[in-house]
């Protein structure tokens, strides 16, 4: 991802220098026509690429120095100074980093695969590492929310507030309807 970020910075500079090698369709169009790209259009394209690079930087920030122990738990120095680890997790990291058999597994595995295996023996530490490694493990909840929102706002639009309906729809809790109904006060109406 960081590689793509640097490419976007380079592409913005190339656009300003009228080098369109990274944009073959634009390059072909400009070569086939006798028109040149107007300065304000070049500026707009370059600005868009810079904004895109900035957005990438917000979503994918530089790795925190404390995360180096996740990338290589066997090269950690001064484990007690790592922010965000509980004492149990620090103890687990010391145990893990001193185990030769696990170190042999680390050398042949991808980081995510290594931590998935390490979670069996070092659950808390493994869970924390997996959250750092896989921040977007699934898009299921996002897709489910979008589908629910589309369903509620199209055909079945009502006067109720969407935030309330949406919160109920997205909740993983199942309501106990019979208990809710039994707890309600019932009024007997006379004829």
What does this molecule look like?
With 191 residues, the chain is mainly alpha-helical. It folds into 3 domains: 2-59, no CATH class; 66-133, no CATH class; 140-183, no CATH class. It has helices spanning 2-16, 24-32, 39-59, 68-71, 87-97, 100-108, 111-118, 123-133, 140-153, 162-170, 177-183. This is HAT C-terminal dimerisation domain-containing protein.
- SS content category: mainly alpha
Number of helices: 11
Measured as a percent range, the helix fraction is 55-70%
Q: What is the quaternary state of this protein? A: single chain
- The arrangement of helices and strands along the chain is HHHHHHHHHHH
N- to C-terminal separation? 72 Å
Give a nutshell description of this structure.
With 191 residues, this protein is an all-alpha fold. The protein is built from 11 helices and no strands. The model has no long low-confidence stretch (mean pLDDT 76).
For the structure shown, list the relevant keywords:
191 residues, mainly alpha, 0% strand, 3 domains, 11 helices, HAT C-terminal dimerisation domain-containing protein
List the SSEs and their pairings.
Layout: H1 2-16, H2 24-32, H3 39-59, H4 68-71, H5 87-97, H6 100-108, H7 111-118, H8 123-133, H9 140-153, H10 162-170, H11 177-183
């Amino acid at each position: 991802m960081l590689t793509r970020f640097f490419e976007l910075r380079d592409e913005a500079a190339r656009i300003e220098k009228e080098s369109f090698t990274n944009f073959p369709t634009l390059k072909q169009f400009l070569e086939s026509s006798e028109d040149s790209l107007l300065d304000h259009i070049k500026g707009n394209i370059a600005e868009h690429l810079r904004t895109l690079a900035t957005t990438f930087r917000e979503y994918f920030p530089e790795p925190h120095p404390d995360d180096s122990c996740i990338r290589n738990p066997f090269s950690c120095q001064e484990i007690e100074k790592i922010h965000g680890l509980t004492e149990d997790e620090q103890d687990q990291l010391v145990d893990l980093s001193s185990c030769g058999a696990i170190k042999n597994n680390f050398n042949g595995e991808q980081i995510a695969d290594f931590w998935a295996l390490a979670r069996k023996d070092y659950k808390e530490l493994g869970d924390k590492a997996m959250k750092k490694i896989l921040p977007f493990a699934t898009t299921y909840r996002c897709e489910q929310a979008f589908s629910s929102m589309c369903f509620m706002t199209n055909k079945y639009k009502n006067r109720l507030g969407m935030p309330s309906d949406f919160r109920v729809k997205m909740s993983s809790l199942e309501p106990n309807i019979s208990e809710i109904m039994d707890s309600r006060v019932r009024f007997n109406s006379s004829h």
